[in-house]
Amino acid sequence: MSETDVVILGAGAAGLMAAGECARRGRRVTVLDHAARPGEKIRISGGGRCNFTNRELSRQNAAERFLSENPRFALSALSRFTPADFLARIERAGIAWHEKTAGQLFCDGKATQVVEMLLAGLGPAELRLGTAVEAVRRTGEGFVVDTSDGPLRAGRVIVATGGKSIPKMGATGIGHRIAESFGLRVTETRPGLVPLTFAAQDLEKTAPLAGIAVAGRASAGRTGFDEAVLFTHRGLSGPAILQVSNYWREGEAIVVDLAPGRDIAAALAAMRAEAGRVALHNALARLLPEKLAAFAVAEAGLAGRLADHGNRALERLAAQVHRWQVRPVGSEGYRTAEVTLGGVATEALDAKTMEARNVPGLYFIGEAVDVTGWLGGYNFQWAWSSGWAAGQVA
Ligand code: FDA
C-alpha cells in the first residue's frame, strides 16, 4: 500500500490551494480526483474568466456575506488569507485582471490561467487524476483512503471534495458522507445560487417574457439584491435571483422590484397630463420593456387609456412593478446550482485549522463545509482561505 504524509481528496479550488501550501512546507502530498482534469469548476467559472475573489470582503461584512449556521466561523480563515493575499498571487503569476461591479475581480483572459497558477504551486506534490475516492478509515495513528485504484495510507487527510452542485462536473457529496462516517454532523444541504422555477399557472403568464432582463431588486424576507433579473422559460434567473435563492425557502414568496429607483406612479401621472390618450400598456412601455409592461398592466387588472385611470389605479400598477410578489415552486436544483448551501457543521471543526475537533488529522475545507458565500467571488475566496488554513498545519 502506498503511503504519504498528506492525502488531499479533490483537486478543485480548495484542494489545490491546500496541496500547494502543504508541499511548500516540505510535506509529501498526494492529491486525488476522479475527474480527468483538475480545477474544472475554476475553468468554467465567471463565464470562463473566473471571478476569483471580491475585494469588498472585509472583517466587518464577512458574517453577512457568508451563510452558515455560524456565520462567524469563516472569519478566522478569511482574515488570515485575504482577497489581497490571493490577488498578490495572481499578480505574481502575471495574470492580468480587472474589477467589475461590487468588488468582483476577474481574469482579463481565460480562467485556466488560475488553474495553471495553482498547478505550478503544487511543486513536488503528486496529482492522481481519474481516481475516485470511496471512503476514509482510521487506522492506528493515521488513515487509509479507499480509492478506485486501491487503498492509500496517510498521516493526514484533507477533504476538499466540494458539494453536490453540478453532478455532471463530478460533484458527488462524498465529503459529507466521509464526515458522517466519522460521526461529524452535516447540516441540511440544498442548492444555492440557483435559478428559481414557477408553477404552471404563473409560467403561463411569464413564459412569454423569457429572455427579458431588467436591472431589478429581488428580495426574500429582509434580504434584497440590486442586480439583473432575467425571465426564463421556467421562472426567473439573473444575478439578483441567484443571490436571493440562498435566502428563499420553499413555500415563501419573493418580491421583485422591476424598476428600482424610479417612481412609476409619478412618471405615469406626468405622462397622463400630456398624453392621456395613450394606452396604459404603451405608456408603461416607455419605462419598461414592452412585454413586461403589458404583463404588469394585466396583473394589476387594468386596461384602456392612461386618461381613464385615477392616481389610485396608477399606484396599483406601480405597486405591481415595484413590489411584484411571486411564489416560486422550486429551483433548477443541483443540476445548475453554483453552490451547495449547508455541509459539514462548523462546530465539528477548528476555525483556525479546519481540523475535525474529534478526529485529529482529518480536515474539511471549501464547499464541503457549511459556509456559502454570496455570488461575486466570495465562494472561491472561501476555498482559497480555508485551503490555505489547513495547508499551514496538515
Ligand atoms: P470543487 O467542486 O471546486 O472541487 C471538488 C473536487 O472534488 C472536484 O474536482 C471533484 O471532481 C472532486 N471530487 C468530488 N467527488 C469525488 C470523489 N468521490 N472522488 C474523487 N474526487 C472527487 N465561485 C466564485 O467565487 N466565483 C465564480 O466566478 C464562480 N463561478 C461558478 C460558476 C459555476 C458554473 C459553478 C458551478 C460554480 C461557480 N462558483 C464560483 C463556485 C465555485 O466554483 C465553488 O465554490 C468552488 O469551486 C468550491 O471549491 P471546492 O474546491 O470546495 O470544490
TrEMBL record:
Cofactors demanded by this protein: FAD
A Pfam entry, by short name: HI0933_like_1st
Span of domain RsdA/BaiN/AoA(So)-like Rossmann fold-like: 5-392
Domain annotation RsdA/BaiN/AoA(So)-like insert: ranges: 190-339
Keyword set, alphabetical order: FAD, Flavoprotein
Domain of life: Bacteria
Record-given protein name: NAD(P)/FAD-dependent oxidoreductase
Organism: Paenirhodobacter ferrireducens
